[in-house]
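Design a sequence for this backbone.
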């Protein structure tokens, strides 16, 4: 019995300690399922879709009311037979409102992907920085300890000992900060994914680290400009303009006739067997409604304001696109500088290892920490390039994760000037 209980405890512990491995694609899948903001926007879309259906039903669906007074009760029914655009404009504006919210959801999902990649990058950099600080701290501690021994032998002084202790303490404080940043970022990833912050999670960012930086290419601005119309803000502003056009039509009521059919059935309490019914066709033509006229003009002014906003958005995006090749060259130069520094750090480390037998142990320690820092710089430069390319995908309304799954379409071969 005790053996069975012990085995049951072991099995329970093994399940409770199961580690969830998440790469960027798995993280996006979890976020789409559990992110609260996504769920909120989806509920708003469902609400707007119901309102759109209600507006369609409201146009030609019959309406029946019951009126009760001291003499009896009346059933009164009406149905719209014909209108000249007002109610149709209301239906169209409701449909456009749905499309605007759907565009918001698509953009938010793209931003979730970029945010998650950024968090993964921050975690990888914090882990690498902690490795750098750990190596620096180890070297400083050895120097500090060696200097204390030299002080006891009368070969050093207290100033040098204090100096190396200060250096060691500074690197130790930097290590603690890097470890704190790592754990804080890991907790933020869990929170963003809707997981418990104490749940065991292993973040796998190999797909990000394995990204190959393209060489001898530049940004094809013509490709991006042709797809500018797919940008989220451009699409939303265009939809907002269409929405306001329909709202203006909805408020344009004077001299726009509507044809109704009415039917009323009156029953009196004195003789419930008898009823008085009456039907009629009514043509309604508004000839004076200053309030609707002012609402119409108000919506037109708002439409012109949105048109100005759309023009400004397009100009800003064109500026960003035309400056993208220069930003690419800056990021590529930073990456190439980091790679060159990493190559030098590797050569320096190899040299220090070959000289280790000559008692140059401290030089080896410094070379190791320098090499790790060089690797961190390469990672950081590569990550900046990845985020830059993801934002260009988002700029033209495409999936930012395509940067990891396809040949990037907005690169063109670089032509060297002679």
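Sequence:
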């Amino acid at each position: 019995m005790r053996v069975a209980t012990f085995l049951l405890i072991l099995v329970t512990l093994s399940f409770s300690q199961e580690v969830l491995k998440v790469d960027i694609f798995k993280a996006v899948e979890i976020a789409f399922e559990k992110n609260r903001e996504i769920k909120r926007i989806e509920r708003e879309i469902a609400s707007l879709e119901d309102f759109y259906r209600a507006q369609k039903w409201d146009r030609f669906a019959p309406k029946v009311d019951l009126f009760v007074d001291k003499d009896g009760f009346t059933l009164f029914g009406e149905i719209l037979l014909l209108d000249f655009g007002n109610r149709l404009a209301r239906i169209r504006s409701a449909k456009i409102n749905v499309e605007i919210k759907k565009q918001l959801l698509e953009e938010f999902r793209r931003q979730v992907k970029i945010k998650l990649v950024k968090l993964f990058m921050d975690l990888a950099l914090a882990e690498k920085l902690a490795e750098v600080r750990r190596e620096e701290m180890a070297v400083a501690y050895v120097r500090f300890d060696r200097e204390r021994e030299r002080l006891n032998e009368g070969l050093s002084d207290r100033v040098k000992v204090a100096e190396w202790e200060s250096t060691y303490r500074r690197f130790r404080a930097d290590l603690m900060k890097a470890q704190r940043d790592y754990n804080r970022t890991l907790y933020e990833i869990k929170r963003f994914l809707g997981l418990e912050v104490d749940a065991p999670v292993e973040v796998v960012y190999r797909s990000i680290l394995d990204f190959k930086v393209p060489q001898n290419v530049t940004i094809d601005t013509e490709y991006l400009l042709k797809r500018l119309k797919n940008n989220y803000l451009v699409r939303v502003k265009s939809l907002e303009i269409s929405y306001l056009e329909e709202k203006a039509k909805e408020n344009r009521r004077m001299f726009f006739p509507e044809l109704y059919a009415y039917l009323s059935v009156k029953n009196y309490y004195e003789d419930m067997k008898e009823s008085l019914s009456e039907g009629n066709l009514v043509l309604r033509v508004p000839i004076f409604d200053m309030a609707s006229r002012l609402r119409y003009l108000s919506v037109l002014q708002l439409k012109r304001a949105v048109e100005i906003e759309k023009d400004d958005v397009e100009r800003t995006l064109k500026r960003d696109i035309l400056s993208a090749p220069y930003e690419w060259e800056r990021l590529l130069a930073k990456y190439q500088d980091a790679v060159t520094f990493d190559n030098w750090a590797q050569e320096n480390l190899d040299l220090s290892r070959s000289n280790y037998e000559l008692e140059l142990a401290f030089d080896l320690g410094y070379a190791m920490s320098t090499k790790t820092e060089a690797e961190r710089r390469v990672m950081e430069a590569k990550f900046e390039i990845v985020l830059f390319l993801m934002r260009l995908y988002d700029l033209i309304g495409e999936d930012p994760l395509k940067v990891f799954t396809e040949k990037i379409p907005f690169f063109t071969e670089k032509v060297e000037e002679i």
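Confidence is low (pLDDT under 50) at residues 1-15.
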